Amino acid sequence: MNRDRFRFPEAPDAIKLYIIDAASKPIARYTVRSSNLNTSGFLLALLQDISNGSIQVPWNGSLPHFEMYWLWLISHQVKTTSELKRTITNNHTGGQRTMPGITTKEDYADLLRCWEIGLTFKDTCFMDMIASSIIDRLRAWAETTPSTSSPPFIYALLSELVRSIYSRSSPETPIRRLIVDAVAYFGRNGDFVHFASEVGYPMEFVKEVMLALGKRKEMLETLALGGGGQPKSILKQSSGGGAKVVRFGTEQQGGGGGSSDRVQKEVFAENECAYHLHTEVGAPCWRTSV
Which residue from 226, 222, 261, 259 is spatially nearest to 245, judged by alpha carbons? Predict the structure, then answer.
């Protein structure tokens, strides 16, 4: 058994999590405070059978993916496997923590797998934090990248991963709405063609993306018409070369800066809680409860 993957100072209520494979063979051991398990319905149930300060946790995935969830248990942080590796290495060597850097398609795939991990461990708070992390990263990408390219998130949506999520969710599931809305918001024509023509993508996914595209087109046209004159929308870079700005309305006549020229900075997923599970049960958002 790969014992004690990571060693951290133990608290009085520390317990051991023995990770067991499909053959009930222990493959790793982690330390966590029992009080940190209160967001996981699955682990709380296992606590009823605690023995000698330890519980056995069935797991059929990779250890690096479990470690993303373990980090959440001990720190309420969301990190991908590559970010976690940098954090653990620096903590053990005494070096400075490295900044997360650019979020890659592999990072986004990790985050979507984390959502499935949250489903397995019945941890809706963790799942909501995953959704927020994806949204934050996509917003950061939009602030620094020209709108002529697709974010790595789009390329993380391989057919196998999309099928897995769709097989464990319904059209009303927030993560599905987030995926679909992100594709409609950030995707390019080539992306839509790929999803529609590539073998393996659920037909539900393709239909939901097309529907979201139609709704987004109607929304943009409505905003443009609201400014008066001929409808239009202009995408431009800010003076600093960063944020995408959407200008709705008419060209300013006479070169002035009158009130008829409406400028609105478009923000992806402005109502972040619309992609959270806590809204379904009337619970507070993780931003106020964690």
Answer: 261
Q: Could you count the other beta carbons within 10 Å of the beta carbon of residue 176?
A: 20
CATH number of this structure's domain 1-100, picked from the four choices 3.40.50, 3.30.710, 3.60.21, 1.10.1140: 3.30.710
Render pLDDT for 237-283 as a digit per residue (tens, 0 to 9).
333 333 333 333 323 334 444 444 444 567 788 888 999 989 887 78
Backbone angles phi, psi at 99, to 5 degrees: -70, 150
Query: Mind listing the pLDDT tens digit for each residue in 134-193?
Result: 999 999 998 888 777 899 999 999 999 999 999 999 989 999 999 999 999 999 999 999
- Nearest Cα neighbor of 127 from 18, 11, 281 is 281
